Amino acid sequence: MNPFSSGTRLRDMIRAIRSCKTAAEERAVVRKECAAIRAAISENDQDYRHRNLAKLMFIHMLGYPTHFGQMECLKLIASSGFPEKRIGYLGLMLLLDERQEVLMLVTNSLKQDLNHSNQYIIGLALCALGNICSAEMARDLAPEVERLLQFRDPNIRKKAALCSIRIIKKVPDLAENFINPAASLLREKHHGVLITGVQLCTDLCKVSSEALEYFREKCTEGLVKTLKDMANSPYAPEYDIAGITDPFLHIRLLKLLRILGQGDADASDCMNDILAQVATKIESNKNAGNAILYECVGTIMSIEDNGGLRVLAINILGRFLSNRDNNIRYVALNMLMKAITVDAQAVQRHRATILECVKDSDASIRKKALDLVYLLVNESNVKPLTKELIESLEASDQEFKGVLTAKICSLVEKFSPEKIWYIDQMLKVLSEAGNFVKDEVWHALIVVISNASDLHGYSVRALYRAFQTSTEQETLVRVAVWCIGEYGDMLVNNVGMLDIEEPITVTESDAVDALEVSIKRLNSDLTTKAMALIALLKLSSRFPSCSERIKDIILQNKRSFVLELQQRSIEFNCILQKHQNIRSALVERMPVLDEATFSGRRAGSLPTSVSTSTGTARNLPNGIAKPAAAPVADLLDLSSSDAPAPSSSGGDFLQDLLGVDLSPASAPPGTSQPPKADDKASLVNLNGLASLTSLSPNATSASPAPMMDLLDGFGPSPQKKEENGPAYPSLVAYESSTLRMTFNISKQPGNPQITLIQAIFTNLSPNVYNDFLFQAAVPKFLQLHLDPASSNTLPASGNGSIIQSMKVTNSQHGKKSLVMRIRIAYKINNKDVLEEGQVSNFPRDL
Amino acid sequence: MIHFVLLISRQGKVRLTKWYSPYSQKERTKVIRELSGLILTRGPKLCNFVEWRGLRVVYKRYASLYFCMCIDEDDNELEILEIIHHYVEVLDRYFGSVCELDLIYNFHKAYFILDELLIAGELQEPSKRTVARLVAAQDSLVETAKEQTSSITNIIAQVANFTIKMLHKGYGPWGSNALHLESLFLVDVCTRLVDQH
């Protein structure tokens, strides 16, 4: 390149870039220019340095990398002329930010320029320092800036004041050095200096309580007087905006007064008059006036209470709220949100107007209004407000629906007075905007339905109706599918009809139709389809007439490309075909889902969400959410009333049911509930008289089904006997015509959670039992450890016994009693026998 | 405080960016992209405020340009509208009914004016006249500096011209070859100086 070539002028380059037709063309021009500039930089060309930097800034604004120009800025700043420095500082502010190391190199130049004889050069340095200085630079240059606060020219003083703001924000320790000079700025007459001085004081108050005290004591009266003079000043053309002298200064003074008056009755008293004057006198037909009124209302709301002023402020907000200008309405909503903590009653008066704003065409206003409505809702007005919100849900656009849905769900959960209302509202939301409902929300709905035993029929029918009209809402489909699976019989037989319901005729095959539709819907996702498969499996035992059809539908998924569906289809088919004997037990209705556990688990992830709407919302401490249980518990845990709620994904319902979760049992959580008298539990017999469960002890000949494999792993290992702690009478835990099981219970001293149980089995029949295997299952709040049995052969006619020890850890010790499901398998003359039962007559407080 | 100022054209082209809070280059590009998507799509009658990442963006459209300022939640939005208007009026006074092209070709001037209006994200001068006076004073400083350098250039150019004339006329006490080289160098120096200004 010719060393004497000047390259193109800035104007020519901009023109060339602007005339580019395509992005590629533009890139080519920029690349060429950048190459030329790089060449000039590497040759250390001084004459065109500032033109090159100007070009680089333009290129930077277009979004191209310009880091190679950073050093050029420093060189320009270090040169002596004003034009070079002016461009250099501009480049510095544009191309660098405070986090770049290069910036440190400029500290020295800045220091020199802050001491320059030319005030414009001082101004440049102050401006750059104020805009991008880092904490280190702030520390180094603070003394210079502090000195410049007393500079003879007001234009430097005002720049120094703003620069000080940056410095004290970066290094709050330096604040005390600035308190005195800042206070003296408040006495200035020059508006620029005054405005920046007031701003500096405001920021000093924010970082230093010492400064706040100082200004409150020394400056409050002076500031009030300044504001008074301003408000009463005659027309001043230089500062006039819409007939008001310097609204900017007005606003800053009001802002500083707000900070000084907050929490101080004397200071608040001192400013009452002028605030009243501003609030009444300022005209509100122009934006500038409204800006002052808005600030004034904010100050009135923040300072110590003065009834009269508050009324005035709320009235101004009311006027704002009915203004036709969207900006004014927006700020009114914004201020009402702050006012709600001060005077909720006054804000409630504007409820109707605010609700109108939720339906506004302006997204910003809608959102603000919704936030406000959310704060306004309480127990007494939740019903009408929710109704309004759901109505606006129908009219809102997609983007807003998400926000609105989340808010409605949260409100309904928080304030719902009764379950039926909760279910109704959720149904409306699901049918209107089901696709926007978050997982935990519809999970919560299922938990609530499951707990409201008298509403099962009502819910399933309502869901079925809703499902018939809108199949597009994914979460609605899921909840409907779950309920049809669980309560399909209630749907068909109209069980639990409420007075308000219209009768509905649904046949068994209609219910199966609904499930089939939800599997075959094109836009059903995996979770929905998987849930529908489970629902079908459940219906297969409840609707014997449809079982063939159900089998067909399940089989259709055998070739699904989705592994999950394929696997479920094959497994379920297997259950339908080969395991008739366990099927009905397997597909029994889900145990009632534990709301406390569920909400506790939710609370872990969603601190703001509230527990579901039972009358007694229990707040549980962390850690008891899901006590780990032995894997076998899941398998046999069919109807224990203490079964924990299903967790986040729909698939877990299945996991809990079939015990797919085979992860090793982990230790129970450390937190234990303080012992609390549980009235119901106290009725449990202490004397050990067995209250046997009704489950049939009839031995069914289960071939070694795959299911049984899950129970392996309880192989023999050395037996250990531990007997200490308080003694309990032995109890007959299980007795049938052929077998008796007695429990000897003991406690481990020092650890009340652990119960040691010695099970003694006695043969009451004349046959020898071979391959004797005892299995036990406990709900999840318990943890069970089985030691190996003393033998696997039980001699006939009570001529001997098998002894097996186990250890149960009760993580809810003191709250819940032990309960256990048992299963005993053995062979008589090589014929399999299976006995099952439940032990619920444990002494309480185990 | 104002976190940043953006001027975006209706087509989404950036005309001016000023950052008072630290944003890395990557973040800056992202912010501009996000905000132009948010603001340019809004209808004409809607309010001038957009909530964004826990902050609030106040924007106002003047002809084909959107002036955007990002502020804290508790700042006065209406005042920011007034500040934007203040800036526009100063620009208008400076350029004489300003248009987008003025701000493209004289973007540095737009920055200089903004620097006289805001520092550290706070307003520094409520008087339009004072801002105009300060910018004009600095512009004239630049002019003076330019004139000084160009007058030096003129002197050199005159000397060079004179020498060359002399050479052509055959005057000169110097040897012809050396002299010819010397004068060529002078001509080079002159062209460079003239080019520069």
UniProtKB/TrEMBL annotation, chain A:
It is a peripheral membrane protein. It holds the Pfam family Alpha_adaptinC2. The keyword Membrane applies. Residues 603-624, 660-680, 695-727 are annotated as: Disordered. InterPro entries: Adaptor_Complx_Large_Subunit (IPR050840), AP1_complex_gsu (IPR017107), ARM-like (IPR011989), ARM-type_fold (IPR016024), Clathrin/coatomer_adapt-like_N (IPR002553), Clathrin_a/b/g-adaptin_app_Ig (IPR008152), Clathrin_app_Ig-like_sf (IPR013041), GAE_dom (IPR008153). Keywords: Cytoplasmic vesicle, Golgi apparatus, Membrane, Protein transport, Transport. Residues 726-843 form the GAE domain. Its main location: membrane. One of its GO terms (biological process) is vesicle-mediated transport. GO terms for cellular component: AP-1 adaptor complex. It is found in: Cytoplasmic vesicle, Clathrin-coated vesicle membrane; Golgi apparatus. PROSITE patterns: GAE (PS50180). Residues 606-619 have a biased composition (Polar residues). Subunit of clathrin-associated adaptor protein complex 1 that plays a role in protein sorting at the trans-Golgi network and early endosomes (TGN/EE). The AP complexes mediate both the recruitment of clathrin to membranes and the recognition of sorting signals within the cytosolic tails of transmembrane cargo molecules. Belongs to the adaptor complexes large subunit family. This is AP-1 complex subunit gamma.
UniProtKB/TrEMBL annotation, chain B:
Pfam families: Clat_adaptor_s. One of its GO terms (biological process) is intracellular protein transport. Gene3D superfamilies: 3.30.450.60. It is a peripheral membrane protein. PROSITE patterns: CLAT_ADAPTOR_S. GO terms for molecular function: clathrin adaptor activity. It is found in: Cytoplasmic vesicle, Clathrin-coated vesicle membrane; Golgi apparatus. Keywords: Cytoplasmic vesicle, Golgi apparatus, Membrane, Protein transport, Transport. Its main location: membrane. Residues 1-140 form the AP complex mu/sigma subunit domain. InterPro entries: AP1_sigma, AP_complex_ssu, AP_mu_sigma_su, Clathrin_sm-chain_CS, Longin-like_dom_sf. Adaptor protein complex 1 (AP-1) is a heterotetramer composed of two large adaptins (gamma-type subunit and beta-type subunit), a medium adaptin (mu-type subunit) and a small adaptin (sigma-type subunit). PANTHER family: ADAPTOR COMPLEXES SMALL SUBUNIT FAMILY. Belongs to the adaptor complexes small subunit family. Subunit of clathrin-associated adaptor protein complex 1 that plays a role in protein sorting at the trans-Golgi network and early endosomes (TGN/EE). The AP complexes mediate the recruitment of clathrin to membranes and the recognition of sorting signals within the cytosolic tails of transmembrane cargo molecules. This is Adaptor AP-1 19 kDa protein. It comes from Gossypium raimondii (Peruvian cotton).
